[in-house]
Amino acid sequence: MRVLFVCLGNICRSPTAEGVLRHKLREAGLADQVEVASAGTGEWHIGKAPDKRSQRAALLRGYDLSAQRAQQVSSADFARYDLILAMDESNLRNLKALQPPQGKAELDLFLRRYEAAVDEVPDPYYDGEQGFEQVLDLIEYASDRLVIELKGRL
Ligand code: 4NP
Question: In terms of residue numbers, what domain contains 104?
Answer without folding.
Answer: 2-149
